[in-house]
Write a structure and sequence with these properties.
By secondary structure, the chain is mainly alpha-helical. Helices cover 82% and strands 0% of the residues. The protein has a domain of 124 residues.
Length: 366
């Protein structure tokens, strides 16, 4: 810890003493986490040696810590201490977080270790109150949970889209099959019509042949008189024609029923395909809209968090720069004091004037 260089503390004014008290307090806070890790390291070793059954009694006898307080210090060591200790204890594995207060260090344990240092730097954890840091961590977790929810919703939307696409493809295949069936039925109906025409032609041919045969029998000389039954002949012709027409009509009727059934099936498949396609398109649009909305909300949350912490982080940079400059300045004063004490005292006086003015200004700004 860098010590303040003063001429004679008793000669300082109350205002100057207040300034040095504040600086010393800041230095003590910066050392708090380091000491907390060392205490937690030793408590951890003692806990392993004493065991769980004698732990409470040992704490009461050897320390001023309650079991809860001891647990918090052990958590500091486990969260920030290096894996390997040495003769003097254990170091902080996060060099950039040495200036954290113990309360803020404990709050940051809620952030995964691989993200802790980056997050603390981003929000300026060293300069935040415990409540402000807790709020920042809660906002981070809420944003992560929202992102996970959005990812699950996108996965669900993708699955629904895949299912709808599969159903649409099946419907399209069924529709193609129906259209092929319809074409086959149409071809069969056309062939049936041709068969009917052919049957009519055959009936007419048979009728002509029958009439020609009758005419031949009528004109051929017969040794014996032949009695002709015109009515029976006509009935036979009509019966032959009626049978052919009935068979053709039955065949045509059956084919028409098959065609009508195929057309109904095709219409149903077309309706199902249209509905499936419309439903899939609607679900896809809704899923894309929700995904875009969620992405915009996530980006807005990130921007809001970044904007709210940007000024604090900037202050942290200036604050650290002032610390480093003051420490460097006092180191130079110490070096000058070894050769020229009088000059060193004058320089200390000049430094106190500047620091006191800065302290006074801070008091009026807040």
């Amino acid at each position: 810890m860098n010590e303040l260089m003063t001429t004679n503390t008793k000669e300082l004014s109350p205002e100057q003493l207040g300034g040095e008290i504040r600086l010393l307090t800041q230095q003590a806070r910066r050392m708090a986490l380091s000491y907390g890790i060392q205490i937690g390291y030793r408590l951890h070793i003692a806990h392993e040696k004493v065991g769980p059954h004698g732990w409470a009694e040992w704490l009461k006898k050897e320390t001023d810590f309650s079991a809860a307080s001891a647990s918090r210090f052990e958590s500091l060591y486990e969260g920030y201490g290096e894996d390997q200790g040495n003769l003097f204890g254990v170091g902080n594995k996060f060099p950039t977080l040495e200036n954290l207060s113990i309360s803020n260090a404990l709050k940051l344990l809620a952030v995964p270790e691989e993200e802790r240092e980056e997050f603390a730097t981003e929000v300026g954890a060293e300069l935040l109150s415990a409540r402000e840091l807790e709020k920042a961590i809660a906002e981070k977790k809420a944003a992560e949970e929202r992102a996970e929810t959005l990812e699950r919703e996108r996965d669900s939307a993708r699955k629904e889209l895949q299912t709808a696409t599969t159903r649409l493809e099946d419907t399209q295949k069924a529709l193609v099959h129906s259209m092929e069936t319809e074409g086959e039925l149409t071809r069969k109906l056309s062939q049936a019509k041709k068969d009917v025409l052919k049957a009519d032609e055959m009936a007419e041919k048979n009728e002509r042949e029958l009439k020609a045969r009758i005419h031949e029998l009528e004109t051929r000389p017969q040794p014996v008189a032949v009695e002709r039954d015109e009515k029976a002949i006509e009935e036979a012709v009509q019966a032959a024609r009626a049978k052919a027409e009935a068979e053709a009509a039955e065949k045509i009727g059956a084919l028409k029923k098959k065609l009508e059934k195929a057309e109904n099936a095709r219409d149903k498949l077309k309706d199902a395909a249209d509905k499936a396609e419309a439903g899939a398109a609607e679900k896809i649009a809704a899923a894309e809209k929700e995904t875009e909305k969620a992405r915009q909300e996530l980006e807005a949350a990130k921007k809001e968090l970044k904007a709210s912490n940007g000024k604090v982080a900037a202050f942290g940079v200036y604050f650290k720069s002032v610390q480093e400059n003051v420490n460097s300045m006092m180191e130079k004063v110490r070096e000058i004091g070894e050769e020229d004490p009088e000059t060193a005292r004058k320089l200390c006086g000049a430094a106190r004037v500047i620091l006191n003015k800065a302290i006074e200004r801070l008091g009026t700004e807040v």
